[in-house]
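[audit] Reproducing an earlier prediction to check determinism. Same input, same settings, fresh worker. If the C-alpha cells differ from the archived copy the diff job will pick it up downstream; this log only records the rerun itself.
[audit] input (707 residues):
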Amino acid sequence: MIIAWRRYRGPVDARIAPDQEATLPPPSAHLMHPKYRADIDGLRAVAVLAVVAFHAFHRSVPGGFIGVDIFFVISGFLISGIIFSSLERDAFSFSEFYSRRIRRIFPALLVVLIFCFAFGWFALLATEYQQLGKHMAAGAGFVANLVLWSESGYFDVAAETKPLLHLWSLGIEEQFYIVWPFLVWAAWKMRFNLLMIMLVAAGVSFALNLTTYRSDGVADFYSPQTRFWELLVGSALAYGTHHSSQLLPQCQALLDGLLGRLRCAPMPASSAVTLRNALSMLGALFIITGLAVITKDVHFPGTWVILPVLGTVMIIGAGRHAWLNRVVLSHRILVWFGRISFPLYLWHWPLLSFGRIIETKPPGQSLRTAAVAIAIVLAWLTYKLIERPLRFGKQNNVRGPVLVVLMICVGSLGYYTYQSEGLHFRPPIKAMDAVLEFVKWQDTDDADPVCRKRFGYHYKYCRLASDKSPSVALIGDSFANSYFPGLASEYNKLGDNLVMLGGSGCPPLIDITSGFAGEVDWCNSMGSNAIRVVAGRPDVRTVVLAANWHLYINGNRFSRRYDRAWEIRSKVPGDDSNVMVFSGKIRETIAFLVSAGKKVIIMKQTPEMEIDPVNCIITRPLVFHKVEKKCEVPAALVMSYLNEYESIFDAAIVGDASVSVLDPYPIFCTATSCPIMDGDYPLYRDDLHLSLHGSRYLASRLKLSPD
C-alpha cells in the first residue's frame, strides 16, 4: 500500500516482469535520464514567456510571474525522475548529479553576472553598485532569496532597480537540490516509502505557506520552506509516473476496501485518450486563469499558487500523447523557446532593470520591446555558444571544477564591491560622492548604544538626542525615524531631550492584534511596547506619534498595493475593516497615554514623492538620452492619496483637546506642487523618507510649543 512507510523493493524496474530481469543491461555508472518530452520544453516556453511578458508588459499578462511556479513543478518532475531512475538501477552518483547541475546552471549564470558587473561599472552610482555587488555574491552563492527577503518585497518600486532580483527563484531551486538528493538516497537505503515522504513534506511546506502569507507576505514569497512543496509536487508526479504500474493496482485495492464491490476495470483506449485530453485542457485552463486573475495585488503564493501548480501537474501528467501536448506544446517554436528558457530568464530582467535605472523612470514601450528582443538574441547565443558546449562537450570532469572556481571568483568580486561601498574610485563616480552625502543615511544612524542600554535592544530605532533623561518621546516607524534629527535639534532649543523608539513597518499603536502589520510579535515589541514604556516613565511628559499612516489604514500607495500583508485583520463588533480597526486603535492609544498624564502630539505624514532625489542633484554616468529632471510632484497627485486617509485620520483624533496635530503638508507643498529640492539641497533621501536636510527643514518650520 502507498500509505506504508516501509516499501516493498520489487523488481529493478516495476514496469518489467520478473522473468525479464535477466535481460536488463548491467548497472551504469551514469545517471539515468527520462525520455525527452518536447511538450515539457513547450511548457517551459509558456513559463518563461509569461515571466518576460509580466516584467516587460505587465498589463497584458498581470499574472505572468506565476511562470516561476510552473518552472518549479517542471524542475521537480525532471530532476527527481532522474534521481529515482538512477537509484533503482544502482547508478546514482552524488558527484555526477552535482557535476551535471553545475554544468547546467553555472555557464549562463556566470555570463550574466559578469555582464551585470561590467555594465554596472559604467552605469551605476556607488550605492547602486554596492547593492549589485551584494546581489552578485548572493546569486553566486544561491542565497539571493534570503538576501532579498531581508530587503523588501518582489513587487515594490525599489525592486525594479535590482538587476539580479530574479535570481531569488534560482536560490530556492538550488537550496532544494542541496537537501533533496540526500534525503531521497537515505530514504531509499532505509527502504522507506518515498511517495509518502514526498506527500508529507509537501503538506508541511504548503501548510507553512498558508500560515505565513497572511502574516508576512515577503517571507512567504522568498522562504524556501514555503516554496519547496511546489518542487515536491513535481517530484511526486515523477514518482507516480515512474511507478504507474505499481500504483494503479494499489489504487484498485484501496478503492475496493473503501467502496466494497467497486472495481477499477481497465479503461477502454478511447476513454483513456479522452481523459488525457481533458486533463491537459483543464490544466491549461488553470494556468490561463492564473495568468489572467492572479495579480501583484493579491497575497501570493498563498492559496492562489494552486492554480499554476495544479495546472502544470495536469498537463505533464496527461502525457506526451494528449492533443494539447502533442500539437500545441510540442510546436517547434515553443520548443525552441523552451530550450533557451533558462538563459532567457537570466537575461531579460537585467536588461529591463538597467533600462529603468538609466531612464530614472519606467522605460517606454519601445525600450522595453528592444530589451526583450535583445534578451532573446543573447539567450540564443548563450545557449548555442556557451551552455551547450560546456554542458555536453568533452572533458566534463575538468569543466565542472573550473566553473566552480569561476563562480567563487565572481561571487568574491561581488562581495568585495559590496564591502568597498560600490568602488568609489571609479572615475564617473568619484566626483559625485560629495553631492550624494546630502541623501546618505546609514543604518548605524538608527540606534545608539546609550539609548539601547537604557531602553533595551529589541527596538530597531532607539536614539537619544543627548545623555540627559528624555522629556519627549518620538514613537513610530521609518517615517518617524527620518523626523528624529530635526525634531531632536528643535526640542533641544526648547530645553527638552528627545528619545526615538520604534521599528520599520510598525505603527505606534498599542496592542497590535493578529495579522496587523505583518509580523505581530516584531511590531508589538516595537511600537506597542514603546508606548507602554514611555507611559510608565514620569520623566517623559510629551509623546509624539508619527508614521506612514496612509499605509496602515488601507495598505495603498499611489493606488498601488504593497506586497506585504499590511492589512489590519482583528475583529470589531459589526465591522472588521482596516478603517474601523485603525480608528479604534488610534483612539485607544491616545486614551492610554492621556490617562498616564502625557501630552500627545500626532504628526501627520510627509508627502510621498515617487521621485529619486539622486536624479535631481547629479547627472548619471551613463544615459541613453538627455533626461528631463522632474523634481516636483503635482500637489493634486499628492492630495489624491492624502484625501483617502485624511478624513478617516481626522475623525479619529480631531476634537480631542488632549491631542495636538502637526501637519507637514503645507510646509512641503504649495498650491500647485510639492518640490523635492530646497534650492540645491534635497529634502528627501528616497521617494518616501526625508533626508537629514529635509528633517531639519521640517522641524524648523513646525510650531513646537515648550513642554
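[audit] rerun output stored. Observation attached for the diff report: The longest strand covers residues 472-476.
[audit] end
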